[in-house]
Amino acid sequence: MQLNGKLQRPDRQLYDIDLYDTSAQTIGDLKAVGRIVICYFSAGSWEDWRPDAASYPSAALGAPLADWPGERWLDIRRADVRALLAKRMDLAVSKGCHGVDPDNVDGYSNPNGLQLTAADQLDFNRWLAREAHARDLAVGLKNTVDLLPQLVDDFDFAVNESCYAYQECDGYRLFRQQGKPVLIAEYRAYNSKMCAKAAAEGYRLQFFKRSLKGVGRPCS
């Protein structure tokens, strides 16, 4: 998983890389050597640096995301917002991505400024999964720990950030019971005891710097 900086190409089976910043040529090259390519984009937030940023109506923008300058929560209930996000999935298809990693799909549990509810989030996340599957894309559920029981059937894999740090990893057993991959990123130094726990639970764990600029260290 690398979302910033010049793309490194370590010996990994799966790459989770930025949809916009990665060319179709690079994705094709990775696929040609047998890599699985998952393309990251933010589904629940507006980012002022993206090429489609001006297309989002100002009325659809909520509160800023803490610690992420230039990013604001999106009103995921709006049809015009969903139409723009659907174009992002079309872009993933055109670039040849095997699947997508839509981020920030837990706005309801954050101070979003839009009065989003858990019901709104469930409706939107299921919509994302349907749209991805309609394009023959695999789709991952990012974080959103509280809604795992309701969403496990809709998603093909799970991506979590820091669930061991927050003691929230147990819920992902639901994904493993269905044979679905669980990919965990911890933003800390390598921890062999944590690796042993992840292995016992059937999870794939790697340790990263929070910037996600370089190569992470997987459990050995």
UniProtKB/TrEMBL annotation:
Matches recorded under Gene3D superfamilies: Aldolase class I (3.20.20.70)
Protein name as it appears in the record: Endo alpha-1,4 polygalactosaminidase
A Pfam short name: Glyco_hydro_114
Domain of life the protein comes from: Bacteria
Glycoside-hydrolase family GH114 TIM-barrel domain: residues covered: 2-212
InterPro entries in the record: Aldolase_TIM, GH, GH114_TIM-barrel
SUPFAM superfamilies hit by this protein: (Trans)glycosidases
